[in-house]
Amino acid sequence: xPTDPLHGHHNPGLVRxxxxxxxxxxxxxxxxxxxxRAAPPEPSGRDPIAMALAGVxxxxxxxxxGVAVLTWLSMSDLQTIVAMSEANQQQEGxxxxxxxxxxxxxxxxxPLPDDQFAGPTIGTTGYSVAYRSQxxxxxxxxxxxxxxxxxxxxxxxxxxxxSRADLFYKPRMGCYGTPQMHFVGGVTAAVVSRPxxxxxxxxxSIKNAxxxxxxxxxxxxxxxxxxxxxxxxxxxxxxKMVVLVVTAPTANGQSTVRASAWNATS
Length: 266
Fold this sequence. Notes:
4 helices; single chain; five-stranded antiparallel sheet; elongated; alpha+beta; 26% helix
C-alpha cells in the first residue's frame, strides 16, 4: 500500500512520486512547482493606428462617392424637369384650349371691368377685333314722345339713323314697363351668361339657342348679337359679332351697355 513518505501514514489514492535526485534539499521537495505562465501572444504585425487611418479614409471615400451620385441624380432630374417644362410651354403655345361653358354676367351695381371684353384673337379663325368695351347709354324716350332710340352696332352709335340701325330700345308698352331691345334687319341674337364669351361660342349660341325678339331688359344681361350680312354687303363693311353687357335698368329706364365687337371675316 502506498504511504506518505513524510509521515509514514497510509495514503490511498496518492501516486508514488519519482524518487528525488540525490542531494535535493527537503524544502525544495516540499515546495509547490512553479506556475506555468502563458506565453505572450505573438505580434500580429499590424499597426492599429494605420488600421484606424485606413478605416477613416475608406469612410470618407464612401461619403464622397454617395455625394457624387446624389449630385449627378439631382442634375439629371433638374435637366429632365426643365426639358419637360419647355415642351409643355411649346404645346400650350401651339394649342390653346377653349374655355369650357359660359361665364356669369356681373351683378347689378358691380363695375364692368374693361379687360373682360378683350376677346382673344390667337387661335380663333374668322374673327378679328373691331372695337373693345365701348360704353353706350340707353335711355327711354320721354313719355308721350314718338321718338325711337336706334342703335348702330357697327360704329357703335346711339340715336343712329334708322336705316343703319341694328336694334332699338323702348319700353314694353306706353311710357312704362320693362325696357326691351328690338332687333331689326336680319340681326340675330342669343342671351348668354358670361361677358368673356368668345366670338365662335357666340355663333354657336345664336345657332343653337337664339333669343326671342324683343329681349326684355329686366336685369343685367349678356347678349351676343350677329349683325345682318345683307346690311354689311350693302354698306360694304364687315359683318360683326357683338357682345353686349347690359346693366339692369334704373327706375327711369336707363341702362348702361358695354359693347365689344369682332369682324366676322370667315
